[in-house]
Design brief:
Layout (H helix, E strand, L loop, with lengths): L1 E10 L4 H17 L3 E17 L2 E13 L1 H13 L3 E9 L39 H11 L1
Antiparallel strand pairs: 1-3, 1-4, 2-3
């Protein structure tokens, strides 16, 4: 059996309870053929980078699956037929990360992040623009 990681995006107008029901149906396909679900994370309702089928948001779910390729093909076929699933992507992985995914890790608040008040080393100091004295004299002479 091989390990796979699958990210699923469900429509924004379905409830999170309905998303859980859908996932239970999809997981049953894997488990009925002898596979197993290693990890299951619900990332919540998040904004999409662009509209998909007139949706601006979607319910994101991560599944780590151990199954045979034929079972995975059936799993993806059934997800593709479901109207509540906007997108899904499955990739083959070597090992399952035991800890929470990057999306589930807590980010520090803005006030807690370290802040540097020193000027950035990749940018020079601000300089005042030099005035051209010749053009300044000409404009004064013309105005007089």
């Amino acid at each position: 059996m091989r390990l796979y990681e699958c990210v699923i995006i469900a429509r924004q107008d379905v409830s999170s309870g309905h998303v859980e029901e859908l996932l239970n149906e999809f997981c049953a396909i894997i488990e009925n053929d002898g596979g197993s679900i290693q990890k299951r994370e619900y990332w919540g309702l998040r904004s999409l980078a662009y509209r998909i089928k007139k949706n601006r948001k979607g319910h994101y779910v991560l599944l780590n699956i151990e199954t045979e390729p034929a079972t995975l093909a059936e799993f993806e076929r059934i997800m593709g037929l479901n109207e509540d699933i906007l997108r899904f992507m499955t990739i083959s992985i070597e090992a399952v990360d035991e800890g929470p995914s990057v999306m589930m890790q807590v980010k520090p608040e803005r006030s807690e992040r370290p802040r540097s008040d020193s000027p950035r080393p990749d940018r020079g100091e601000r300089r005042e623009p030099a005035q051209n004295t010749e053009t300044a004299n000409v404009s004064v002479a013309e105005g007089a």
